[in-house]
Amino acid sequence: MAKIAIVGVGLIGRAWAISFARAGHDVALWDVDANAPAAALTTIETQLAELAGNGLLEAAPAGVLSRIHAVESLEAALEGATHVQENSPERLDLKRELFARLDRLASPKAVLASSTSAILPSAFSEGLPGRARALVAHPINPPHLIPAVEIVPAPWTSADAVERTAALIRGAGHSPIVMAREIDGFVVNRLQGALLEEAFRLVAEGFASVDDVDVALKDGLALRWSFMGPFETIDLNAPEGVRDYVARYQSIYVDMFPSDRGRADWAGPVLEKIETARRAKLPASQLAERQAWRDRRLMALLAHKRRAARDVGE
Length: 314
Ligand SMILES: NC(=O)c1ccc[n+]([C@@H]2O[C@H](COP(=O)([O-])OP(=O)(O)OC[C@H]3O[C@@H](n4cnc5c(N)ncnc54)[C@H](O)[C@@H]3O)[C@@H](O)[C@H]2O)c1
Fold this sequence. Notes:
Blueprint: E1 3-7, H1 11-22, E2 26-30, H2 36-53, H3 61-66, E3 68-70, H4 74-78, E4 83-86, H5 92-105, E5 111-114, H6 121-125, E6 134-139, E7 148-153, H7 159-171, E8 175-178, H8 188-204, H9 210-225, H10 230-235, H11 242-256, H12 269-281, H13 287-311
Parallel strand pairs: 1-2, 1-4, 2-3, 4-5, 5-6, 7-8
Antiparallel strand pairs: 6-7
Helix pairs in contact: 1-2
The structure holds nicotinamide-adenine-dinucleotide.
Nicotinamide-adenine-dinucleotide binds at residues 7-13, 31-33, 36, 87-90, 94, 98, 115-117, 138-139, 141.
């Protein structure tokens, strides 16, 4: 089993700690805020109990928790670590400085991975002597409940660092998406961005309400998407498979998206409309409660997916 250093233990860092510790790894938590590791351990204890309650934890919660340790210095966190997962705030200057420190202090054998949502790995690793071992491992929130993780190399990241990270992450029950090279938005946010662009446009131009766009996903597309991707979906949507689908339906999509169309302005008047509709359904004071509800629904879905994969097949 490996030793993992979690650097920055806010929302994402603490969820990573659960993933690695439940896979049997030894996890050290460090944060510039000296109180953060202890606070993280308290949240982690609650989350482990919830996972166990939903049948999503093979090991006993206390055993998993015993592998996670709060430490007082970055040096102590990095001592003996073969994987470093950085989860500091989303600021390039901060990540540059932190990666320079990590590269100086971590064992040369350690992979240095950032959870960044949108900063390209080349941007924070360019000048580092050890830049071949730096990459992005971007989880989807909340990472202890959503398996996909994007592994994004900079042009100089070694194949060995990518492969070791993919193996570690797969072994921790995640599904790595291993990108061949970096691009803004990686894969997940590019797909989400394309969908959001159209959702904003449909509402902005008065074709559909905010609620109806949500229904189109949650009671429509997302039912299939929760167990297969868009390519498998279209492969099964025409009698002869994907080629048949393209022959039949490509023209619909070509006509739908003329190439000269401008971007929807997400922050324009449409935002007022979307926010009013959302706040009528959910007052801002209830956002945190609803996030906890989302996590319970995700746990129920995960438990179902595991059962269905076993009983019906992958
Ligand atoms: N929240 C999400 O939905 C989400 C999803 C995927 C990835 N991410 C990415 O994960 C990273 C962390 O996001 P978060 O939501 O956990 O933020 P957060 O604000 O909850 O936690 C950030 C933590 O980093 C600590 N910190 C600040 N400066 C530091 C430093 N120099 N060294 C070490 N720790 C430091 C803070 O004290 C805090 O505990 C960001 O890069 C973010 O883009 C976030």
